[in-house]
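Dear H.,

Thanks for agreeing to be a second pair of eyes. The structure we're designing against is below in token form, covering all 117 positions.
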């Protein structure tokens, strides 16, 4: 089982219910194909650095999961077929990134926080 982090940018016209249902669709896909969800973090509506498909905003979602290596290819095909997804990226995490993410979620100082004046 490998650890992965997936960031997805959805079209900004989704309602809250549609956004929750599409999150459930992909989490169910991962768990149904031998993976497990570590952490889900919906960022919400954010401005894009540059227009994508003539849109200047998008709904961001970051998902950390563990799964077999063959899971990613099927997941990629599902996301490319989905018209509600503007961009996606799946990154394989090494053991240091997994530890860093766990420490960050638990509130332990990671050393990368901004110093308060």
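And this is the sequence the design step returned. I haven't edited it by hand at all.
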């Amino acid at each position: 089982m490998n650890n992965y982090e997936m960031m997805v940018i959805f079209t900004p016209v989704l309602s809250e219910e549609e956004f929750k249902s599409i999150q459930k669709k992909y989490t169910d896909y991962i768990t149904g194909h031998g993976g497990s969800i570590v952490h889900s973090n919906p960022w919400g509506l954010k401005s894009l650095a540059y227009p994508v498909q003539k849109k200047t905003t998008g709904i961001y979602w970051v998902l950390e999961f563990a799964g077999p290596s063959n899971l990613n290819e099927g997941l990629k095909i599902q996301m490319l077929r989905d018209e509600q997804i503007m961009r996606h990226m799946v990154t394989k995490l090494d053991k240091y990134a997994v530890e860093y993410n766990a420490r960050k979620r638990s509130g332990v100082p990671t050393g990368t926080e901004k110093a308060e004046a």
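Two observations from my side: The mean pLDDT is 91. The chain has one domain: 2-106.

Warmly,
E.
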